[in-house]
Design goal:
Helix content is 29%, strand content 27%. The protein contains 14 helices and 26 strands. The strands form six sheets. Strands 8-9-10-11-24-20-19-14-15 form a nine-stranded antiparallel sheet, with no helix packed on it.
């Protein structure tokens, strides 16, 4: 169990390296002009004898904003100067809201500029709400187009407000693409307070063609939003773009764009964007605590995804730009026939990664919590943690109580492991003498060792089996405590945030975290009290483990370190009680172990006669 954290870090690295290879795709065709001798397919009003007609499409617009300034380091939301863009009217913003979210819209693209989460402050010392997509010029649910060269362009012409707006829960924007062709974008929030509903924005995009010609739409991308990193996830494990194809859940980590390798092997070049052709039931951009999830209507699922790094403004004037992640879902709307319309509907969830809310979305959106292979255990432990918090009102105390419940449940198994270690230590000298006596007879050593185990009623696997049973619980708990948004800003004793290290001071640029030091001390005493059935060189390595794990866990979240510290204290208590317990059987010497119990030939057992009755 002591190697569980190191094993988890290695498995996480393997998960990232095993992502699917990017699939090649041909750029979507662009219909520019209809041949007068060839009628447009799908247009009931086409005629071979008709006049020449121009088939317009979204791709022909001049109001597109380039995604990136260079291919090596994409800068999302940094448009190149374009004289056409200077002619656009000033940007206007509108707000719709309910009790839990405030959604701000921009007329540039008729999309969501940012979403404020009213119940979640941005910092501990400020009541201002956390704002998703803040600092990104690429709006959520904004339309993007792919050019023939494979580059992306943001389609952001100025829309006009059609209805609704500030003070209501619904808003509509309209854009006249060409005379007779309108794009209408509608958004609505719910007044519910339970489940996922209060964090859901319902959206539809309608393309209304009232002309006698075909309007080409073809492939478009709808942006999912931009997720910034969090201080409590310095490795960026939870900062990724993810998607679900109806069977498998995949995620693209930010490290995927950086290239590199592992210990000099598996070297890969950095990439500016990743595209995949796959059916998409939903897609998400997320960090450790919050997620933006776009779920298309099942009748019109996505046919692909793209993901890119996103450069966000620095937190301080002298700081470096922050690198987040963004992406979108690809849809194939084909063409809109004359005098008809085509619509695209979906739901956008922007809110905390709370399991109780995510399961209400009904298409396995709870996968964004990344609970790992033992997620079913993590879900149960999360349910237990939330239940204990409702009883005591503090997540630190809830973690301690949860640890006690887990260790009490596993007490019989861990007690057997402790007893087995004690018995194994007891026969170390006889085992050593066996090896010396039969050093040239390995089969005899094996036979005599098995006989010695039988005489002392020792099961060699008794110490290993409890550890294997505990490992799934540990992995599930490890992932759950890292991804639970409830621990954000949760305080306990001197700890201000259970999702962060418990730094109380910085000395010479080095953070001083007391709780990992306490954990290291408890692990040292645990090692000292545990019988070691190994040679001196192995014991020296084993005694270095507390220091090794102190380095690994020093910057872990204090909630996880708190669990580990209390678990160590429980192990110390159990080992103390086991060591104090007197042995039932008589000690067996080396000579008796080698030769077996002494024989007493000729001696017969005699029965005692009962005294005569008076």
């Amino acid at each position: 169990m002591l190697l569980a954290a190191a094993a988890t870090l290695f498995l996480q690295k393997q998960q990232i390296d095993q992502q699917r290879e990017e699939q090649s795709r041909q750029p979507p065709p662009i219909v520019e002009q209809q041949d007068p001798q060839q009628p447009e397919s799908g247009d009931p009003d086409s005629s071979t004898n008709g006049p020449t007609e121009t088939v317009h499409s979204l791709q022909s617009t001049k109001d597109a904003i380039p995604f990136s300034e260079n291919a090596e380091r994409p800068l999302i939301g940094k448009p190149q100067p374009d004289p056409e863009l200077q002619k656009r009217p000033p940007e206007e913003t509108y707000v719709i809201e309910n009790q839990l979210i405030r959604v701000k819209f921009t007329t540039y693209g008729g999309a969501i500029k940012e979403v404020a989460l009213k119940k979640y402050p941005a910092t501990q010392r400020d009541d201002a709400p956390y704002v998703f997509n803040e600092g990104s010029d690429l709006p959520a649910l904004g339309i993007s187009l792919e050019e023939p060269d494979g580059s992306f362009e943001q389609y952001a012409p100025p829309y006009k407000l059609l209805s609704g707006g500030s003070g209501s829960r619904k808003i509509e924007f309209i854009l006249e693409q060409i005379p007779g062709v309108n794009l209408v974008r509608t958004y609505e929030v719910s007044d519910a307070t339970e489940g996922a509903a209060p964090y859901v924005v319902k959206h539809s995009t309608r393309i209304i063609n009232e002309t006698p010609t075909v309007f080409g739409v073809n492939h478009i991308f709808l942006n999912v939003g931009t997720a910034p990193p969090t201080h409590s996830d310095p490795s960026g494990y939870f900062l990724n773009f993810s998607y679900y194809d109806g069977e498998d859940y995949e995620y693209i980590s930010l490290n995927k764009f950086k290239g590199g390798g592992f210990l000099g092997f598996f070297k890969k070049d950095p990439v500016s964007e990743i595209q995949r052709t796959t059916q998409t039931a939903w897609a998400s951009t997320k960090n450790q605590f919050f997620a933006s999830i776009v779920t298309p209507d099942p009748a019109t699922p996505g046919i692909g995804i793209f993901a890119q790094p996103a450069t966000l403004p620095p937190e301080t004037p002298l700081g470096e730009p922050i690198l987040g992640i963004t992406g979108g879902i690809e849809f194939d709307l084909q063409n809109v026939s004359a005098h008809s319309e085509r619509s695209l509907s979906m739901e956008l969830y922007v809110g905390p990664k709370e399991y109780s809310r995510l399961i209400g979305l009904d298409q396995k959106q709870e996968y964004v919590m990344q609970l790992g292979f033992f997620g079913f255990i993590g879900k149960f432990l999360l349910w237990m943690l939330l239940g204990l918090h409702n009883m005591v009102g503090n997540y630190g105390i809830a973690i301690i109580l949860m640890t006690v419940v887990i260790r009490l449940t596993l007490w019989p198994l861990t007690a057997k492991a402790a007893q087995s270690s004690k018995k194994m230590q007891k026969i170390q000298e006889p085992l050593k003498e066996l090896k010396e006596k039969y050093k040239d007879q390995p089969e005899r050593i094996q036979k005599e060792t098995l006989k010695l185990f039988q005489e002392h009623k020792i099961n060699p696997a008794a110490g290993c089996l409890p550890i294997f049973i505990q490992m799934p619980i540990f992995f599930g708990l490890f992932q759950m405590l890292r991804s639970a948004s409830e621990l954000r800003f949760a305080h306990f004793l001197w700890i201000e945030d259970l999702s962060l290290p418990d730094t109380i001071a910085t000395i010479g640029g080095f953070p001083f975290n007391p709780l990992p030091l306490v954990m290291g001390v408890t692990m040292y005493y645990q090692m000292k009290m545990t019988p070691m059935n190994m040679d001196s060189s192995q014991q020296k390595i084993f005694k270095m483990l507390p220091f090794f794990f102190l380095i690994i866990c020093y910057n872990f979240s204090s909630g996880l370190v708190l669990y580990w510290t209390i678990s160590n204290c429980f192990t110390i208590l159990q080992q103390f009680l086991t060591n104090r317990k007197k042995d039932v059987e008589e000690p067996v010497g080396a000579a008796a172990a080698l030769s077996g119990p002494p024989a007493t030939p000729g001696r017969k057992k005699t029965k005692l006669k009962k005294p005569p009755k008076k």
